[in-house]
Structures are given as structure tokens and as C-alpha cells.
Amino acid sequence: MADILPESSDWAFLPAHLLDSIAEKLVTSYQLLRFPRLFPSYQVAAIYNDFCLVALIKSGDKAWTSISIEQLELAADVIYYESRFHVLDRRLGLTKIKSFSGIERSIELEAIIKTPNRKYTSPESQISYLVESSSGELLTVVRILKEKDHKVQFVTWFFKVYKLNRSSRSHPVWVEIESIGGDALFLGDNHSVSLVASQFPGCLPNSIYYTDDFNDIVGSKASWA
């Protein structure tokens, strides 16, 4: 991807905070992932610094567009879904980035889910992921952690999975589901994915595979099915 992303001189236009910190996640548009040389048009979103801010850039831009914390709650995950970036905050609010421009320094956001799920809100007790199911539905997976032996050490306790329901009369909501059917989800600090388990020998349906990507946490063999 190095041959089509902005040249090194362009990275000087990164937001100041991003220059001084490590990007926790970089997510690209589908075309860049699948056919990088055939589709020079691309979009990239980054979650960065201790405040989990979001910055974006696309082909033709000479500068990153940074979303302020006043515009968007602390980001938990970002996904490129239905040709737009969607950002999940730590209280499970969902925001779609309708458009942005590093040239005009503009951005348009749409709050898909304004009322967050407040049942599990502590950053120390959960990690949330966005993933698209094999059938094209947008899922949020909440990984609940608990303290181990009364020490500053956490293990995975259980998972909750929510599906975006856009048929609600008032506004879209997250609806908890008890099964993901024949899918298997792969979650981690990179791009989370789903696949049809039957197409991959040894892969179990209705299962979640995950990495221990929480600082100072000992992973467990807990599973969700």
C-alpha cells in the first residue's frame, strides 16, 4: 500500500496529537484492501492517542481531517460499512461519517444511535468491536472483563452481541442477539471479520475467536456460543 498512500512529506499534515502518539487502529476502504493497485481511490480512518480520537484521510487530500472530542465521543472501534466509515464510541453510540475533505477542512457526521447503551460503560471492564456479518448486518460485540483474584488483572468473562436494527419506528437501535448462526467472528485490535464457518475446515459456527488485546490482562479460554 506504500505506493498509493500519501508520500512521506504529506504525513507532516497529520494532527498534532497523532504525530506524538501511536495509532491504535487504522482502517481502510474495501477497495484499498482488496485491489490496491486497481483502485487508487482510497479512504483511511485512524483511532489515536489516549483520548481515542479519530482522524481521516482520502486520496487527493493533503491533510488529515481530525474529529474533535466535542464532535464525537471516545472511539472504541471504526469500520468501513456500506461505503462509509462508522465509529462506535465507548457507550455504544454509533456515528456515520457521511463525508469529509482534507482540502476544504470539512466533515459531515450523522448520529445513527444517539442514545447509548449504558449497562456496561467502564472502559476498564469492556472492549467493544464492530464487525459486519456474512449476511451484511452490522454487529457490535461487547467483551466483558472481570477482575481476577482481586488483583489489577482482568480476564474475559463473557460476550454480548448486538445487531443494528433499523426497523425501529423511532430510530435505529442495538438489539441483543443470542446466536450468530453459521458465522464465526474473529475479533482483535486489527480489523475484525466474520466468515461462514462451514467454508473453513476446523472453524466452529456460532463462535467467537479473539485475541488478548487488553493491556495487562491475562487471556482466558472463555467462549461465547
From TrEMBL:
* InterPro entries with a match to the protein in the record: F-box_BR-signaling, KIB1-4_b-propeller
Q: Where are the transmembrane segments?
A: none
Sequence ranges assigned to domain KIB1-4 beta-propeller in this UniProt record: 23-217
PANTHER family, alphabetized: OS06G0707300 PROTEIN, OS07G0183000 PROTEIN-RELATED
Q: Which organism is it from?
A: Rhododendron griersonianum
Q: What is this protein called?
A: KIB1-4 beta-propeller domain-containing protein
The domain of life for this entry's organism is Eukaryota
